[in-house]
Amino acid sequence: MEAQTIVAAIKGDDEAFYELINLQKHQLYRIAFRYLKSEHDALEAIQEMTYRAYRSIHKLKEPKYFQTWLIRILINACNDELKRLRVQLPLTGEVIQYKLTALDDSTEPGGRVDLQRLDILEALDRLDLRYRQVIELKYFEDLTIQQIAVVLERPEGTIKTWLFQSYKLLKEYLQERGDSHV
Amino acid sequence: MFERKEPNKSHKGKKRISSHSETMDELVKMDELDTMDDLGKLMNEFNAFHELDGVNKVHDQLIQAKPRVADTPIPDELDDHIQKGLTKGIKAQKVWRFRKWTTLVACFLMVAFITTARVSPAVAAVLHKIPGLGYIVELINYDKGLQSAVENDFILPLGVSDEHENIVFTVDGIIMDEASLVIFYTVENKRGEGTFDFSDVRLLDEMGEPLKEISIGHSGSGVPDKDGDGKIQSRINVDFYDNTVIPNRLSLKVKLHEIFQDVPFEPSSQLPSTWEITIPVDKDKFVGMKTVYEVNQSVVIEGQRITFEKVTVYPTRMSLNVSYDPANSKKIFAFDDLTLVNEEGEEWGSIINGVSGSYPDENREILFFQSNYFSQSKKLFLRGKSIRAMDKESLRITLDPEKERILVGPPNLVLDQVIKNPSEKKKELIFSLKTNPLYDENRGFCVFPFEFIDARGNSFEIKGQSTATNSDKPGYDKTLWLTLPDNQSYQSPITFQIHDYPSRITGEFDIRIK
Q: B224-233, B446-455, B468-477: which has the minimum mean pLDDT?
């Protein structure tokens, strides 16, 4: 079913295009928000993504790559948003703290903070942005290595390397916190 | 259509490797490559299998964190931002695309786009004074002639409705003269949701007979319901020709089909009802409102002779009769910059939002311009410089859709892809076109005509065509979609006569009309 809508959108059907964005909007927002840590910035990135996707959807050759293609545009829009906000994009290997706002950690519904979960999300925040992207796209958005490679515009081998490095670093951070679970 | 990694799978894999002692046994038992846990594989690749245990724990925690991340609160303004992005994109793109060709002249509705719209305060004042007509201001934004017609009280408010199946079709007002009838309408869905589009539009006389010699046009994909009030408002354009007999009463009959968000267009989504509106015709109001200027002057541009015969001015449009010398070596497609100018330099360009002309035969054409009927111009000139044309011998495009190749064709056009759509019995051919940035930046092209001839010499019709003013192929700047029927009835290769193409002849001319 969706395939038809995608073909229509590629052809230029505005309604079909809007429909497709609508279907994915929650996931897209989540990705942007986790990336940028700010509701306002995430909304701006979504808006920019919509604009860019609309302008370039006719270039999409394979309808089945629509979701990945869209997420890639979103990630690029997020990167540009960060540049605009003059936050430095981390270089590979370095861990840079940036825009650390108390995210979902403090909005625990039950009021009780679970130390273990707090740690993993905090540990993620300490990761290099690229590494964090790989982990989050894999674990929170269920993308495969292949899809992540398309989204981040890198070879699969690089993604695997980043993934590997991320696991190692996360393990270290979790241990550092004196978390006896590890 | 899109493969998603199943979280359960990796979790299951994890369970298998929960303790050291089990690990090696399990591995020995299973067929290694197929069933080894992804993580295990990864660690192996980096020669760090010994670290798998710690990594598995990280993996677990990530899995457990997912539901909370999935619960990220979504702000209310999300939809708003998406819509803003889309609107911005549409404005930047400025290409009208049609999902369905409902009239024979539909392709020719895609004309060049202007970059500014004039909103005349006087026009807005007239329209906002009459209840229900406010939306028309935007619809005639691009047409000076219609705007001045409105300013001169030439719009007739009607407000007549017909309702079926909880959908109200209303003709809010019309502008009518001997040349055309512009119908401003509202489609209101009382159920609130759903988008509708015309599947049939007919105009009948008082005897119930369809009017002959007219062409009816409307924006095929329907104007989106911008403010979510369940109403779609737009216009239907009817053009009359010299032979049209305008009756004293008109009956407009329309059928609608519902556009579903996730279901492709099917004939069965057409609604059974027919909405009918009677449109009174007050011929006294407009009969005789026309001025004819005999011109009968020729220009020769790069060896091609073009004769401007006459200009007829009506309140809704100006018509220019042009003829081309049959002995010309080139086929003339269109004028890039033909305008009518008065003594003060004020210009009237071609009709943007509607049929841009008609073609009585191969060597004659009637071009439509925005009207200056209500302006008191003392002098009027016809000016232009650039004309799209091509050698008559090179007008052929022969395609083999099966082999996905252009066998014979003009330069700067390539076939990129063929997408088959068996469920809708059609296939989509996607081309890239290189155009002239100076003239063509915002222009769409109807390269293909409606008809093609197959290998056996039989003639068929295409299903649709559209263009986009950008391209992903380096060196090219337009994308064309050609929709062909996919019903085995025609035999490849198929041949088209080029209808329009970005190749040009230039020569300045300035002809006095009045």
A: B224-233
